[in-house]
Amino acid sequence: MREIEQIYHNNFGIAFYWKQNSQTILDKVQLVFKETGFYFTISELNQFCDLIEDSLLENTCCEACEMKYSCHKFLLKTPCNSIDLAVSMTELKSIKDLVEGSLFKIELDEYVYGVGLN
Fold this sequence. Notes:
Layout (H helix, E strand, L loop, with lengths): L3 E6 L3 E8 L2 E2 L3 E6 L2 E6 H17 L15 E4 L6 E4 L1 H27 L3
Antiparallel strand pairs: 1-2, 2-3, 2-4, 4-5, 6-7
């Protein structure tokens, strides 16, 4: 099994960097949730974050619906043009937490071990 360096996880999924020869490959992030894996650049991960927010805004009309947390009718676009995901509102919020938490940790590490390093 290949080694990984975990970035962030929640009850729904995990984000990590792959390691090769004990070196962490920082140019892409492996995102795994709902039996699905994406291997995104940081730019694509930011784009995915925007697409998640767009999906949340598009589906605010369902606020009064009693099925909103179990319905699988929400389509979530991904940075991969040919792939959309069918997710519930609960899953969408979990994916949002996973992506935002990962981006926060990546940016924090870049600051702490980059420009913030004395």
